[in-house]
Amino acid sequence: MECSCAYEKIEHCHCCCGTILQRLAQGEWFTARVSACGLFAVAYQRASAAVRTELRQMYAKLCRDETPMVRRAAAHKLGGLAKTVEREFVSKDLLPLFTELTQDGEWVTGCDDKQQ
Questions:
Q1: Hey, is 113 helix, strand or coil?
Q2: Is residue 83 a part of any domain in this protein?
Q3: Does the global pTM surpass 0.85?
Q4: Domain region containing 57
């Protein structure tokens, strides 16, 4: 009985963590989305296969966010996430994101090329 109760608490915790991560990743304020970038690697390790797909999709959205600071945070945390993602998805999902981010000069300079 105790094992079953502990298992239910762990599952509840994983569900809550996933919900919190989703809220942060979709937050209205860019600071929430920046914070979310650092949590994906930890969440990914503990997620089911179905949730992992969703997490990769959410991370891709952050890599393409309209705010340069969010894209920068996603770029800085991409390596950590790649260490936890299955090899097939690193090449399929994460490498294209890496390529996009390396070609994104806006977050590197902190301003739009048109403003320079």
A1: helix
A2: yes
A3: no
A4: 2-109
Calculate the CA dihedral of residues 68, 69, 75, 77 and round it to 10 degrees. -160
In a domain, 47, yes or no: yes
The secondary structure of residue 94, as a DSSP letter, is I
Cα 28-32-82 angle, rounded to 5 deg: 120
Q: What is the pLDDT of residues 23-76, one digit of tens each?
A: 888 888 999 899 888 888 888 888 888 888 888 899 899 888 898 999 999 888
> Which residues lie below 8 Å from residue 14, measured CB to CB, with a gap of 6+?
46, 47
Domain assignment of residue 43, yes or no? yes
Number of structural domains in the chain: 1
Among all chains, which residue has been given the structure tokens 């304020």?
29
